[in-house]
Amino acid sequence: xxxxxxxxxxxxxxxxxxxxxxxxxxxxxxxxxxxxxxxxxxxxxxxxxxxxxxxxxxxxxxxxxxxxxxxxxxxxxxxxxxxxxxxxxxxxxxxxxxxxxxxxxxxxxxxxxxxxxxxxxxxxxxxxxxxxxxxxxxxxxxxxxxxxxxxxxxxxxxxxxxxxxxxxxxxxxxxxxxxxxxxxxxxxxxxxxxxxxxxxxxxxxxxxxxxxxxxxxxxxxxxxxxxxxxxxxxxxxxxxxxxxxxxxxxxxxxxxxxxxxxxxxxxxxxxxxxxxxxxxxxxxxxxxxxxxxxxxxxxxxxxxxxxxxxxxxxxxxxxxxxxxxxxxxxxxxxxxxxxxxxxxxxxxxxxxxxxxxxxxxxxxxxxxxxxxxxxxxxxxxxxxxxx
Length: 387
What we know:
Oligomer: single chain
Keywords: Glycoprotein, Lysosome, Membrane, Protein transport, Repeat, Signal, Symport, Transmembrane, Transmembrane helix, Transport
Catalytic activity: L-cystine(out) + H(+)(out) = L-cystine(in) + H(+)(in)
Structural class: alpha+beta
Number of domains: 2
Number of helices: 12
Order of helices and strands: HEEEEEEEEEHHHHHHHHHHH
Pfam families: PQ-loop
Number of strands: 9
Shape: elongated
InterPro entries: LC_transporter, PQ-loop_rpt
GO molecular function: L-cystine transmembrane transporter activity; symporter activity
């Protein structure tokens, strides 16, 4: 194709694009995309038009409510004339019942202005006091879970030995937290993945917060420190079991295949992160079994920190308490019974914590000695403790 033909094509392409560029002007936007209101109270937000509509074209704006039984809006619709200059409209929201709902604006005709950001997520609560109590409970269990790694590190350092700490549990824990950190960091810090999330859930909210980032990275660090202690302190004859290695191999193959599919764009990177989170959930279900069985075989909990268990138990109980408080405050029991995964995992972890407490204080109480396991551990060094 000649140079003159290329220039002509470029010139006429702008002519072809002109109707598209002039078809949509400005945007209709909400002043906020998150509102919190008490039951039977009134609140409001503004809708603003950034530019005037094209000449000779009017628009009708209809306010849609996701759950009309939870809230009502006024006005429910209004018109925008072509002659109107950029302006704002006040939308009043009356809370009728506790819960979550989305208020969104629909514009007719749909090609006259961009209204993709003209929506508000409304949270209707029964009590502001419960909201603050829930927040305090959340910070307490966040601290409890964050600190829970250090009693085991301390006991290892004090004994100069990791005999009693099961390597299968430790290796599964490390892989699980790495998967959790990948999910959190990817969804929070990688714009491409965050955009994929919002493309999939246009009116959603990024589920990862900065405290999730801190906890997951800190968990990887603390678990890695514990793994490092296994290389410098006495380990006896302990090794990662064949069963655990097979499980790690299955997880590795699954993640590798998912990674390749992401690189070749068969799946999105967001899906890869979800698969990482599924590995973490699977590990949470099985990681305590090796340690519990190891204690049973040794008939002792020497070397296994009960302080870690108490902190994990505290965090698990408070985590479930927060879910119950939120479910009541927002009348959102479906978050527990409709999708029981998170609550069930918390309950499962607490159940194992109770089992460990029974092992430590009832079954193997005051037993500094333990049954030596050939091929697993050696005799406990003098001065061993079970704190």
